[in-house]
Design goal:
It is a single chain. By secondary structure, the protein is an alpha+beta fold. The protein folds into 4 domains: 198 residues, no CATH class; 104 residues, Quinohemoprotein amine dehydrogenase alpha subunit, domain 2 (Lipocalin, Beta Barrel); 78 residues, Sandwich (Immunoglobulin-like); 121 residues, Immunoglobulin-like (Sandwich), CATH 2.60.40. 23% of the residues lie in helices and 37% in strands. The chain contains 13 helices and 29 strands. α3 packs across α4 and α9 packs antiparallel against α10. The longest helix is centred in the first third of the chain and has 18 residues. The radius of gyration is 25 Å and the shape is globular.
């Protein structure tokens, strides 16, 4: 038990330390990747001819997946490899044995560190694989049937007590894994996929990403942001990055950094914004980038990010994306190649164009008193993009995320607190009575005991503090708390309550937040 605990801690620390390699510019002048494979890996992985090595040549993974594999070799098998060689190897393997863009669709939340995502897999996958790690970790790799079976064997060999543990002893885990999961995974996530072969032959040159990018984003607890990201070449598949942006409240979003491109589209950047290091995980294809930026030390503090290259023709965002019938407001359209007067649909009038360029348009809008509630398609000439929500009344408030996890930390320990960060999402009903999303609206925030046990244990008092204006929850300190019953820690089970005023009518929405202990093993793919 002690050895397993030490191994878990070592693996977690190794993954955290090596994860930074994905966001740092590698010294691509380091030794040739094939030489590294032959000198470092062939002691265990035998040659199969044509530069193929056993096990390694029969898998495809994301950059994070290959990084985790090498880290595991270091921790479990004592592989000696320098940081430069590891970066070179991850780059080579991700480029030659990666995943096509279509193969990461639907599970990029794991790469983007959206750790409050509630996964939706079939029951078999959820119970056999996603009880111990995310289902996305499985979905972000490709293997033939023989390799999936090797992975099953590895699980039981590395954790011999697996079949007797709480989350596996309710079935014949090994038999189910070999006889049912292996063929299922081999069919669903095969090594040979036409999409990968096509991507290898058609992926664009990284130089196409050099230039100016107009971006739009949203940070829970802070709001919407727009700006320009400048990308300059700094080597083969590496870039210098400059960001100049501004939040809706006027505060700046400026910084500089670097980035590297894997697999022809997997953008990994590291940018210091106002002194805080942020990571970028984007899918960059053609004239668009989309993904997430988040703090290196606090991945819960992150913003959704979408960008269009200047010179392209795209409408990215409308900020804010809603308008109440009978009222006026200013909105900003973000995009590229926007020419002409925008049209916001029936019942919405453009009162005045306050500012206009090909990349940014600011207008004053007015919605008619009798404007039909619902979504309007926004167009500028031939460009179509996001919708504008017109509403008369808010019918429902939803807390987003509806279920989340925050973590105690600090208190003299090495692991920081993990905040809870929430948005209040307004919903309405259109003319046919169908629900539609209005958008993120201001709210007043509070927490309450989720159930009788939480009430009895005074979780509201001890688990942490909710900032009423921003929806940001800061957990309590880690470690035993003598003020609590049995000196337990500051964990808790809380309702998250958003209160919204809609023209004098008060509406509330509720979510659930578990405040729990530190996450010690925190690999690049959870």
């Amino acid at each position: 038990m002690k050895r397993k605990l030490r191994l878990g801690l070592s693996t977690g620390l190794m993954c955290i330390a090596t994860c930074m390699a994905l966001y740092s510019q590698p010294s691509l002048a380091a030794r040739d990747a094939k030489a590294i494979l032959n000198e470092t890996c062939r002691g265990c992985h035998t040659s199969e001819g044509n530069d193929a090595l056993s096990r390694i040549s029969h898998q495809r993974k994301t950059p994070e997946g290959w990084l985790m594999s090498i880290a595991r070799m270091q921790v479990m098998h004592g592989v000696q490899i320098s940081d430069k060689d590891r970066r070179t190897l991850v780059k080579y393997l991700a480029d030659t044995q990666g995943l096509a863009p279509s193969e990461t669709e639907g599970v990029r939340y794991a790469l983007e560190r959206r750790l409050n995502t509630v996964e939706k897999f079939d029951d078999q996958t959820s119970q056999m694989c996603a009880r111990c790690h995310s289902g996305a970790r499985v979905a972000l790799q490709r293997r033939p049937a023989e390799e999936w079976e090797e992975l099953v064997n590895f699980h039981l060999g590395q954790w011999p007590s697996l079949e007797y543990q709480l989350l596996a002893r309710d079935r014949e885990w090994f038999d189910v894994a070999r006889k049912e999961m292996v063929p299922l995974l081999a069919k669903r996530y095969p090594l040979d996929n036409p999409a990968w072969k096509k991507w290898l032959s058609t992926s664009p040159n990284a130089e196409a990403l050099v230039g100016e990018w107009n971006f739009s984003g949203h940070l829970p607890g802070k709001g919407e942001v727009t700006g320009v990201m400048s990308v300059a070449a700094d080597g083969s598949d590496t870039f210098k990055v400059n960001v100049k942006g501004q939040y809706a409240d006027g505060s700046l979003f400026n910084g500089d950094g670097s980035a590297i491109l894997y697999t022809g589209y997997e953008w990994r950047g590291k940018v210091k914004i106002d002194g805080v290091t942020m990571r970028q995980v984007f899918a960059a294809q053609g004239d668009s980038m989309q993904g997430r930026m988040f703090e290196a030390e606090h991945d819960e503090r992150g913003l959704d990010f979408v960008a269009a290259k200047q010179g392209s023709n795209r409408l990215l965002a409308v900020q804010p994306g809603y308008l109440k019938a009978g009222s006026e407001t200013e909105v900003i359209l973000v995009g590229s190649g926007m020419v002409g007067t925008p049209n916001f649909g029936k019942g919405v009038e453009v009162v005045e164009v306050l500012e206009q360029s090909a990349d940014r348009i600011r207008v004053k809008l007015k919605a008619a008193v009798n404007a039909q509630p619902g979504l309007r398609n926004v167009t500028i000439g031939t460009l179509k993009g996001p919708t504008l929500s017109v509403y008369s009344n808010i019918s429902e408030i939803k807390v987003v995320p509806a279920f989340s996890v925050a973590r105690i930390g600090g208190g003299g320990g090495s692991t920081p607190k993990v905040q809870g960060r929430f948005d209040a999402e307004a919903w309405g009903k259109d003319a046919e009575g169908k629900p539609y999303r209005i958008g993120i609206v201001p709210a007043q925030w509070s927490v309450a005991a989720f159930d009788e046990r939480a009430e009895e244990d005074e979780d509201v008092k001890f688990a942490g503090t909710m900032h009423a204006d921003t929806g940001v929850f800061t957990p309590g300190d880690a470690g035993p708390n003598p003020a609590r019953k049995m000196s337990t820690n500051n964990a808790g089970n809380l309702k998250v309550i958003a209160a919204v005023d809609d023209a004098g009518k008060s509406l509330t929405g509720e979510g659930q937040m578990i405040v729990t202990v530190q996450r010690w093993n925190n690999p690049p793919i959870p």
